[in-house]
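Quick note —
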Amino acid sequence: MLDLSGKNALITGIANNRSIAWGIAQQLHKAGANICVTYLPDEKGRFEKKVRDVVKPISPTIILPCDVQDELQIQETFNHISNNLGKLDILIHCLAFSDKEGLEGDYSNISREVFNQSLDISTFSLGNMVKYAKPIMNEGGSILTLTYVGGVKVIPNYNLMGIAKAGLEMSVRYLANELGPDNIRINAISAGPMRTLASSAVGGILDMINHVEKVAPLKRTVTQLEVGNTAAFLCSDLASGITGQIVYVDAGYTIMGM
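Predicted structure written out below.
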């Protein structure tokens, strides 16, 4: 019943084969979606090579550079999809960043520069990408982003990213209200902790994973493909009545009081 055939999906945030975005890409591809991906450009082209090597098994139709702090690159990304594919059906936003300063020490010591950069990349970028995606989601569509329980509860060392995720979750709700009349849905997956390039920047991540494995009802944390399965569902017609929601894929961890 879960069929994404004929759907064009743009996936951001794949860094390596441990990325949650990669798990999502695999499951959308498995469901029949036509995959497009972006990478963060750098002077030596190292990120592009890594992304191309990772996504080779799913043969993406389009691979483009897109630094979400560069407005022109965002415009060019969506123009390219419009000109070559005619429409976009699915947008996967898996983008977050904080300088080390934002992930350690006292929250009150974080500089304005670090705060602004993190919120720009991790939070503002969702709505900004939606601005360009909306006109080419001419048959309706589904948008999905990633969050974490650190956006609603205090997690040691998560600090600035918790603020960014809180803003991201509220952005999902406001965007759901905005996009609903155009038959575009938007949701977020709050995934349990796992070993990724992004999570490695958070101090004590292995302790967090071990804690979840002890406390969560399923006595384990989740995998990239489990998040990918939920993403595929939320992007399909099976989830046609779901929008503006934060869906927890965390082995049940957040239901526990202690």
